[in-house]
Amino acid sequence: MKLRALLGMYPNTRALREGRIRPSECELDFADVKVPNRAFKAVVRDLSFDVAELAIMTFLQAKAWGKPLVLVPARVGPARFQHQCLVHSTERPQRPQDLAGRRIGARAYAQTTVTWVRGFLAEDYGVAPERARWITMEDGHVAEYRDPPQAERAPEGKELTAMLLAGEIDAAIIGNELPDDARVQPLIREPEAAAKDWARRHRAVPINHMIVVKSSLARSAPEVVSEIYDVLQEARRAESQRTEGATGPSEFNMAPYGVEANRSALEVAIDYATRQGMLPRPLTVDELFEP
Question: How far is CA 179 from CA 114, 160, 174, 258, 287, in A?
């Protein structure tokens, strides 16, 4: 069985992507896509892949709108907290709680990191999503979703960091890497400490990307899906063995595998997405997976 697959080249997937680890029940035909999130629309709109890496909030929206995809409880990609992704210009110092009524820039309103950060702002700083103005660059991955009234599109050709430094937006939500400009810094003070406090309270680390498969594959060939899960774990172990001893033990499992290991994080993700009006119907963790 040859399966069309979308999977980034990360330390915890490298052995699988490079062919050093292979499933025996299928052949994974990896798409030549350097930045997987640029293919996420194809995953949910065109069902272009049998097996795919996908942002968790995109998957929750796809599931709620009835797309024939199911979740595999395997996190892929760089494991990270998200609090550091809310940034501001140090030339205009402020606090997270000051963002009510302010302009916050983001790639897309429905982006996973943006949804997590909105959850932090509402829960810990009293800034509900509707109390801020959201300036976006593009629409979300799921075609049926429409941005709320408090979101507007930036003028063509604009870029988040330049808008932030020019004072056109008051804060921005970016990826994990800060721009190469000392004036752009995390808005949440001591973001790692804040993230760890959040993780202890919720018994979870925010999910970024997980694996999904077509529902038809999960139903017709569950043994193939099980093996895909196994080889993903094997690739992760290969990386762990390679780097063993490089860092000390961590208080948090940043990329747990398994339904129960991810249940708390998935519950919070569903709760945040529901409170923010991202889903057309409620979801439960168990319906995300095939029995």
Answer: 17, 10, 9, 34, 39
